[in-house]
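Format notes (please read before filing issues)

Several people have asked whether sequences and structure tokens are stored in separate files. They are not. Every record keeps both together, in the order shown below: the sequence lines, then the token lines. Line labels are part of the format and must not be stripped during preprocessing.
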Amino acid sequence: MTLAQLFQHQNICGKDVYVVDDHHRAQAPWALVRRQLGQAPNLITIDHHTDVYEAFLGHAHLETWESGGDALALARELVKGIDWRDDQSLLWAIERLHHDEHIDAATMSGILNYAFCIQLSDSGGNPSIEEQAYDADRQEQSPQPPTLPAPCRPMTYEDPENHIFVISHDCAIGCNRMPHNDDCVVEHGNMVIESIYLDDQLARGAEMSRCVGIDHLEAQPYILDIDLDAFHSRQAIEPADRATFYRLIRNAVAITVATEAECVDELKFDGEAIDADFLLARLVEHIKAAIG
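Then the structure lines:
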């Protein structure tokens, strides 16, 4: 097998677009893009899931199951062996990566610099230093009110060891429900690439990036990565305001798309007549419109 067999490559209006069935195979085009650049690019990914498991941890658990060895230590040793310059090294790695381990493998091996995950499944994301201090103070003072004021933006962040930032979200922009409910899930999912939502997420990501020396996230080379399971409805893939999404498309050095057909079917909202083929076709049209 060759790396080129792991993806479908399209040149759309001069933009390199790489389509993979399984998201962990995006490691291959990410490495090819890395070879073309003088530096490791950042990743901006739009996904339902966070995809931040430790690289090779699933494989390492299988390898150490009978011996009782340290699976995490083995996983970290294996990721050190990835050489993004070498096709066989990458093929070896991709064969052993499990679901949701690909971003960690890429950041820890130097294929990517930092990853910024815009996602729908984790409202907490990477907590800021201020949020961590406030939560600790609230627990210490309970049942009395906390002594620290509630944190507000902008906030500061620690440099994550794995170079992955999961960007938090509160709910759909403008939602005032308390508690949030099933209607929130639909409203939130439907605006995943609306400008108002992406602007919020990118502003949070900018706070994170500045804390690791990246002053302007979109000004540095980045790969735009899109998992089609982020789109749960026709409305989600047809935003009313596409300006920010189209800017991300235009400025990316390359685009990777994971079709993840089974996840699309599992996560789509009730009554939605969508599948991975439909979503991919619409995404290609968006790319053409953004660039053309």
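For reference, the curators noted about this record: The chain has a mean pLDDT of 95. The first helix runs from residue 27 to 36.
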